[in-house]
């Protein structure tokens, strides 16, 4: 079953997809959107879901370091509900603490320029979120 992993921010959504067997995650794209208007991302998300035959979504849940849910976590919960209601696919909220920092570290170790890192950091974070979920399921 193919899954989509998403790192949801206020202006961008990092997107990754799994292979058919659910073993590996690959970074796919970054969607630019306005968090206040889901329709600004709807068409692009729908296209990805159909093209990749996605059956489940794994949405990053940014928790505070003490495990509580803050404003960004609530925004991710709201996004997950919209995904379920609009696209009729099940969603899983997955703890994403430190994934953006982990993605940044990987890109720094790859000696990627700051400008290039900005372009790929969100889809890299989505890939880490999805891969973490896939690894935990094994």
Automatic annotation (TrEMBL):
Keyword presence, Nuclease: yes
Stretches that traverse the bilayer: none
Domain YqgF/RNase H-like: 1-103
GO molecular function, one term: nuclease activity
Entry-linked CDD domains: YqgF
Predominant location: cytoplasm
Stated name of the protein: Putative pre-16S rRNA nuclease
EC number(s) from the headed UniProt entry: 3.1.-.-
Pfam families: RuvX (PF03652)
UniProt key word tRNA-binding: no
Organism: Terrihalobacillus insolitus
Function: Could be a nuclease involved in processing of the 5'-end of pre-16S rRNA.
